[in-house]
Amino acid sequence: MTSNGSNENKIAIKTRNMNLWYGSFQALFDINLDVKEGMITSLIGPSGCGKTTLLRSYNRINERLGYVRIDGSIKMFGKNIYDDDVEISQLRQQVGMVFQRPNPLPLSIRDNILFAWNIHTEKENRISRSEQEDLIEKSLREVVLWDKVKDKLNSKATFLSLEEQQKLCIARLLPVKPKILLMDEPCSALDPKGTEAVEELIWRLRGEYTILIVTHNMAQARRASEECVFMLMGKMIEHDRTEKVFETPEQQETSDYIAGRYG
Amino acid sequence: MFQETQQNIKHKKTERLFRILFLMMVLLLITPVLMILGTLIVKGGPAISLEFLFTNPTNGMTEGGLFPALLGTIWLVVVALLASVPLGIAAALYLSEYAPDNWLTRAINLAIVNLAGVPSIVHALFGVGAFVIFFDFGTSILAASLTLAVMTLPVVIVATRESLQAVPQAFREACWNMGATRWQTIRRVVLPNAISGILTGIILEVSRTAGETAPIMFTGAAFYLPFLPESVFDQTMALALHLFVVATQVPNVPPSMPYGVALVLISIVLLFNAMSITFRMYLRGQKKW
Ligand SMILES: Nc1ncnc2c1ncn2[C@@H]1O[C@H](COP(=O)(O)OP(=O)(O)OP(=O)(O)O)[C@@H](O)[C@H]1O
Ligand SMILES: [Mg+2]
Questions:
Q1: CB contact under 8 A, B176 and A64
Q2: What's the pLDDT at B213?
C-alpha cells in the first residue's frame, strides 16, 4: 500500500491515553493513535467530534487558551511533546499547520515564504540574497505555484486567489523543513478546481512529510489519504488503511457514518 | 397589477417624514459650528496677517502678533505627543496582545475608559503636584506637556487598542502556529498593519489638547513672556491661554484680536485633524486583506 516501504513501520506521532478538557468540558477521551511516518492520514467524523482539537494538541496551540488541560502522552519521534524541556517554538517549526481559511500574512509573497524561516534562523546563519531566492523558488515549486507568481514575488499575498493563497500557506512551512504537516480542512474554502489542485499537491508531498489531514469530504478522504481515522464524540472509533475503513469497517458507527447516517 | 395601494402611500408619507426629521437634526447640529466658524472668519479674518502670525505681542499685548503663543502651542503638543505615543502604544500593546482575558484586564480596560472622563482641571492639579513640585520640573513646557500627555493617555490607549484589534486574529494565529513569539508577531505583522491607524488616531486625539487651557495654566503656560522658549524647561506662552488673556484680562485690546487668535487656534487643530484624516483615508485605500 505505502509508496515507501522503508517507512512502513515507523511511527511519527504516538498518542497514548490522551484526554483533553476545555475547562470542565471533556473534548477528547482516551485517544490512542499511531500516525505513520511519511503517510497521509485523514481524520474524519461528524462536526464537533474533536478533530480540530486533536490536531491542535499536536502543535500545542490549544494551550494559548489557558483553560485547556491534557493528560496522557503524545510522542513525536520518541519525544513527548508535553515534556517540560520542549521548546514550543522548536516544536512548531517541526510541526506545520494549515488552516481551513487560507491565512497568508499581509506581506509580500516573498516575505510570506521567508517568515517562518526568518523566525527560526539565527542572524549569523542567514544566507545570501541569492540563496534566499533559491529557497523561495524551491518552496514555491514544491507547491506548483512558482510559474504563476514568479513575476510578482513582491506583491501582497492577500491579493492571490484562494487556491493560490492556500498553496502559499503550505509553501511557507517548507523552508524550515518540518517533519509533520497538520491540515485542518485545507480545501473546504476552495472551489472544486482549487480543491482538486490542492489535493493533488498534498498527495505529492506524501513520503517527504507526515501529513495529518482533517476533512469533511468523504470522497477526499478516500482518494487522498492512505490511512483513515474515524472519530465520534471525542473518541477514536476506528483507524486503519483507508480502503479498509471505507469498504469493510470494523465498527458499526463507522459504517453508519460513511453511509451518511450522521450529520 | 403593480398599482400603488393606500398602504404604499402611507409608507411613503412616513418615509418622507422621517427623512425630513433626520435632516433637520443634522442642520440643527451643524448650525452652531458654522456660526462659530463664520463669526471667527468674519471678525478675526481681518486681523490675520504674516505680521500677526510671526511677531511678538507689543504695547501691553494690545498690538503686534501671537508668534510666541503659536510656537508655544506647537512645543506643547509635540512634547505631549512624544511622551504619550510610546507610553500609550506600549500600554495598549500589553492590554490587547499580552494580557490574559480575565476580570483584572477587563477592570483595567474599564478604568482606562473612565479615566478619559476625568475633568481637565483635576489633571491640572495632578500635574502641579506631580511634575511641577514632586519631579521639580517647575512651571515649564515639560511639566505642561506631561500633564497634557497624562490627560490624553486614556484616549490614546483606547485609540491604539482599536487599531490593534482591527488587525484580523487569523494573522496572529498564523504567526503563532509557525512558532513566532508574541513579540515577533507584533513586530512583524500586527504593528506594521496597525501603526498607521494608531498614529493618525493619536495625532487626532492629542492635537485636540492644543485647545486645552486648564492643564497648562498652572504647569507651564505664562500670560506673557518677552522671549521665546529655548528648551523644555522654559515656560511658554500658548494660544489657548493667550486667547483667554486677550479676551478677558487685558484692557483696550482691539476687538478683532481675540477673534484672530481664536481663528489661528481653531485652524491649527483643524489642520492637524485634516492631515491625520487624509493620511488615514489614504492608508485605508492601500490596505486589503
Ligand atoms: N476553544 C474551545 N473552548 C471550549 N470548547 C471548545 C473549544 N473548541 C472546541 N470546543 C468544543 O470541543 C468539541 C470538539 O470541537 P472541535 O472543534 O475539535 O470539533 P471538530 O471535529 O473540529 O468539528 P468541525 O468538524 O465542526 O470542525 C466541541 O464540542 C466544541 O464545542
Ligand atoms: Mg474543526
A1: yes
A2: 87
